[in-house]
Amino acid sequence: MGMHCQLTGRKPGFGNQVSHSQRKTRRRWNPNVQRKRYFVPSLNRFVTLTLSAKGIKTVDKMGVEAAVARLRAQGVNL
């Protein structure tokens, strides 16, 4: 599963792990990405979306129909 949210576009952040002695090594911060299954009445079927925690809250707030419409406008194949 790709570490990015389909709705909000959140991706991993990159930076340095800094130890007590100030040695720096590269690391990444992964977003909290989960696969979530929603029933879309207009399509009369379930769709599986890869969403971050904020993306799940956004779908809860705006509704699954509006979220799917926004993804289709972006060109995402569901």
Automatic annotation (TrEMBL):
<dbReference type="InterPro" id="IPR001383">
    <property type="entry name" value="Ribosomal_bL28_bact-type"/>
</dbReference>
<protein>
    <recommendedName>
        <fullName>Large ribosomal subunit protein bL28</fullName>
    </recommendedName>
</protein>
<dbReference type="InterPro" id="IPR037147">
    <property type="entry name" value="Ribosomal_bL28_sf"/>
</dbReference>
<comment type="similarity">
    <text>Belongs to the bacterial ribosomal protein bL28 family.</text>
</comment>
<dbReference type="InterPro" id="IPR026569">
    <property type="entry name" value="Ribosomal_bL28"/>
</dbReference>
<keyword id="KW-0689">Ribosomal protein</keyword>
<dbReference type="GO" id="GO:0005840">
    <property type="term" value="C:ribosome"/>
</dbReference>
<keyword id="KW-0687">Ribonucleoprotein</keyword>
<feature type="region of interest" description="Disordered">
    <location>
        <begin position="1"/>
        <end position="27"/>
    </location>
</feature>
<dbReference type="InterPro" id="IPR034704">
    <property type="entry name" value="Ribosomal_bL28/bL31-like_sf"/>
</dbReference>
<dbReference type="Pfam" id="PF00830">
    <property type="entry name" value="Ribosomal_L28"/>
</dbReference>
